[in-house]
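Q: I'm writing a short explainer about Glutamate dehydrogenase for a general audience and would like to include a description of its predicted shape. Could you first generate the structure from this sequence?
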Amino acid sequence: MISTSLLPLETPTPAHICPFDQACSYLEQAARELKLDQGILATLSNPRKVVTVSIPVKRDDGEVQVLAGHRVQHCDILGPYKGGIRYHQAVTLREVSALAMLMTWKCALLGIPYGGAKGGIAINPKSYSVGELERITRRYTSELIKDIGPAVDIPAPDMGTSAREMAWIMDTYSVNVGHAVPGVVTGKPLSIGGSRGREMATGRGVMITVREALADLGKSLAGVRVAIQGFGNVGGAAALLLHQAGAKVIAVSTGTGGVFAQDGLDIPALQAYAAHNRRSIVGFPQAESITNSELLTLPCDVLIPAALENQITEENVHQVQATIVAEAANGPVTLQANQALAARGVTVLPDILTNAGGVVVSYLEWVQGLSYVFWDEERVNREMEQLMVRAYHQVIEQSQLRQIPLRLAAYTLGVGRVAQALSDRGLYP
Ligand SMILES: NC(=O)C1=CN([C@@H]2O[C@H](COP(=O)(O)OP(=O)(O)OC[C@H]3O[C@@H](n4cnc5c(N)ncnc54)[C@H](OP(=O)(O)O)[C@@H]3O)[C@@H](O)[C@H]2O)C=CC1
Ligand SMILES: O=C(O)CCC(=O)C(=O)O
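A: Of course. Here's the predicted structure. Afterward I'll give you a sentence or two in plain language.
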């Protein structure tokens, strides 16, 4: 664990599952591998800017609540800060800081000209009306008005947010500065300059990464048995695309439980069912009910955690039966679990590679916006696929060259590029 961290330990989270401490540990490993200067390591171990704002919100019943909203800007050496905004009850400053750091390495790994940031508000969005969520989002944006902008920091959706929240941010920002600024966010609706393909992009990137990893093992997606934790933007899109590519998605879960079918679930039917049941999949016909923890230990070829951090831990890692774990979520496998999987020869496709399809299409949205030329979905998907496949092969090459696991390989590429830029900009010898 890094001793130079300036972040407060706001909650008594044990170091082995604190997302920020884990992110720092991976950074340290990469720094050792790259023989990085101690000053560069200390610089990259801390976010450049941490903003916490109070968000007073009048609820529909008249009660006033004050929420804490965070935006953590980790590094802007390669370009504007970039990263999603999360609405989830478990959000903490250290979690947001970890996610911001991951964004820096992810963008560098994918070769897109961004730094890393993340935002979050600790609310369960399901407990708030649409009107309340709009008031929260607009106030959060107003409080951050000087910290965001198309050349400064560009938010996007993450857990609990979507194109709807991005439109509210874009509108609030635009009204504050006096003219329309679509480039202040990505992942926005098509009507205000969003990109085709963004909604499915993260799930598509997951499907592409899994497909490439299987190809390296001499297999294809056809008939492969997949279990997916999380059925939201990422898990839902990955499930559909894998199903369409011929994989058998045998199990899926959400926060309220999961479903399992030995011969594979009918994913379009499951999506229609969830849409009619306030996103719950429990009770889906022709499937057995399973718990979230049962899903993680099912016999399958590919396990895709696509929800929260710290889902595969020291406690359950020995029961994981998949031969590939594809991290669609950010940080779903703890440090210790990661080591245990590696020792058993399980391929872990790291988050900063596997879920990068979202930020890649965010970048393509930004490029389209800057050039005022909008592409069809086929072109967006093609350009995204090229960047994903390139990054995948760079990670494999780096892993073989240095004889290191895929996560460390991905980190050495991402961290190494940022460190090189720091040095080229004259900050370090
Ligand atoms: N959106 C994006 O473009 C990107 C997202 N990611 C990462 O992907 C992950 C998922 O994000 P996203 O799909 O956008 O989020 P969503 O809010 O769209 O969906 C989250 C899903 O996870 C489920 N879930 C929540 N808690 C649990 C739990 N304890 N066990 C099992 N399932 C649970 C939710 O179920 P319920 O509806 O019941 O709450 C829902 O199905 C996050 O780690 C995020 O950081 C990474 C890159 C880009
Ligand atoms: O699309 C983006 O800009 C960021 C997506 C994100 O938050 C992530 O990749 O974790």
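A: For your explainer, you could say: Residues 84, 157-160, 202, 229-235, 253-256, 279, 292, 306-308, 328-330, 355, 358 surround NDP (ligand 1) (CB under 6 Å).
Q: Perfect, that's easy to follow.
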